[in-house]
Amino acid sequence: MANPLDYNALNTITYGLYLVSSYDGETKNALVVNTAFQVTAAPAKIAVSVNKNSFTRQLMLKSGKFAVMPMDEKTPFIFIGRFGFRSGKTFNKFENIEFTVGKNGCPLIKEHTLSAVEVSVEQTIDLPTHTLFIGQITDAQVFNSAGKPLTYDYYYTVLKGKTPAGATHL
Amino acid sequence: MANPLDYNALNTITYGLYLVSSYDGETKNALVVNTAFQVTAAPAKIAVSVNKNSFTRQLMLKSGKFAVMPMDEKTPFIFIGRFGFRSGKTFNKFENIEFTVGKNGCPLIKEHTLSAVEVSVEQTIDLPTHTLFIGQITDAQVFNSAGKPLTYDYYYTVLKGKTPAGATHL
Hints:
Largest interface: A-B, 50 and 50 residues
Number of helices of chain A: 3
Low-confidence stretches of chain A: none
Order of helices and strands of chain A: EEEEHEHEEEEH
Strand content of chain A: 35-45%
Distance between the termini of chain A: 41 Å
Largest sheet of chain A: 7 strands, antiparallel
Oligomer: homodimer
Radius of gyration of chain A: 16 Å
Helix content of chain A: 10-25%
């Protein structure tokens, strides 16, 4: 019998958890993603992978702008759920949430995040279920230099968080 | 005065540390990368970002095969340096290192790694200093289910590791 693939091998890949926001005119949204990485140092470019079903992705494609905010390890579960488990298509995620508008027009949320990187989209890569957005960093600021980044591992093992089916369609 | 970009904002992005190996005929090499992520669950695809100056990248382009091995948090610094700070162009990284040959032909190193994912390259994305390799997972196995993945944060803050200039050209 052929040895089956053991997909537990993929559980040892390290991910963070990030709020990614965007806008189109008066409409704004943000979701939670686990894949963000710096592409080059100079010029400073960053990439994020966003599920194709998400409303935020539609806004990113329209405006060509997004912001990435690494989340704080101390983020309450309910805050993660608000942005991570619900869809901006049918729910106003920003109701009663404090935010400012970044230089690139995207909503920035300081609460429970460590920093914000504002980005202009330069390239989109079509992947089977996701779009990889690559862009130039146009602004970057630190909100909380003492906090620790929330990792997916911490979320899963300490916060006992699980991703509901369809939760990445945000 | 315009507010300068605070690139410390990028220090809160979470990365792991991975051995990535490849081969071309009798020639094999492996390097350390910090960017690997699952692209889709079904079919199972993975991506890694590899510096354009690296010897391993040349082998990946020739054979179209690579293996990704998330490193164990307990990996000794000298082992990371062997694969991460030296170039396979002038140094045989596999001398006195135990390895097996994976189904896809790539060398697999169990020592100090948690798992191995074997990949056939399907797509390469040209980034300014790196190439993003995206491929189909053809085999996956767990070596150490009790170990914790080594993160870049742990490497930097606990092991006090720094990346020497040019160290990603591996």
